[in-house]
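Support case: beta-D-fucofuranose complex. Customer-provided input:
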Amino acid sequence: MKKLICLVLVMLLTFSLVACTTEDPAATTTKAAATTAKAEDTTAAPTEPGNELITVGFAQCKADESDWRKANTASMQDAFSEANGFSFTMADSNNDAAKQVADVQGFIDQEVDYIIIAAVNMDGWDTVLGNAKDAGIPVILMDRTINASPDLYVCWVGGGFYNEGVKATDWISTRFTADEEVGIVNLQGQLGASAQVGRSGALDDALAANSNWSLVARQTGEWSTDTAKEIMTSWIQQYGDDIDVVYAENDNMADGAIQALEEAGMKVGGDDGVAIISFDANRAYLQMTLEGKINCNVECNPQLGPKAAEIVMLLEEGGTPAKEESIDETAFYYDTITQEIIDARLY
Ligand code: GYE
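Agent response - structure generated as follows:
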């Protein structure tokens, strides 16, 4: 009975995720209905004696590494609340890949029911995931993919990072003609994270396909505004007007680059400034896109909690989730975005 109520609740939550990423009266009503149904149904209170909670260990890469990650952490904590029937433990590896593997081993030793991983790095998972398999603990990959044998995890849900990169490089192709020299600097995410590998990979392929494009400089900005600002400040001193495009692999790093350019008195964004590419499309940075500071902002949805909870409940019911589920994503452009579009966003 309790798990059925959990399933209904999670399905309602997921409906609000999948139905629309923009504010929708129906969605709002759905969430409200979910909350009310839960509040009224005291017989199903999971904490009542005899009603065990589903135990979930979540290995987060670095809970506050970026605005996107903060939204993602909140989405997981909300979806896996005790009110929804879960006992949820998050381990924050602080982007230390070795620590994250140890965190997962810790969850195995605690004999949790499920393990969810947002992997710091794509490599190094075979042994510990083998241990989880031997222990009979299903592993779900959320957001980031890994290089491990697919039989070592149940499924992955997240963004299509390479395709996100293609959306960005397609925009560069519309901005510059084939006979214009285009100097690109690349602020990469944490090296080895699948989001970085996918987005950098798309840029590499586009650079190979466009002989008038050149990679002026590339470095990891660790997803951080401050680190990106420091790097961009030194690139401006070294390369100045050779920089036509900043390919920043998340909103925070795009912001850092913009600050450095503005402090150097360089024109940013718009029709004729240094073109700014960003990823994530968090609300504050969509505002900067509307202001013309960011030219192209490729969406990556952080609200993966309800979907991950839905997968756990499907497994609880003996179901089989899709091996891979890529969340729908779009892109926003400075010359077409509107305040209405931004106001309708959930994050
Ligand atoms: O782009 C960045 C976050 O894995 C998609 O990680 C995520 C990335 C996101 O820190 O802001």
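The longest helix spans residues 2-19.

Case will auto-close in a few days if no follow-up is received.
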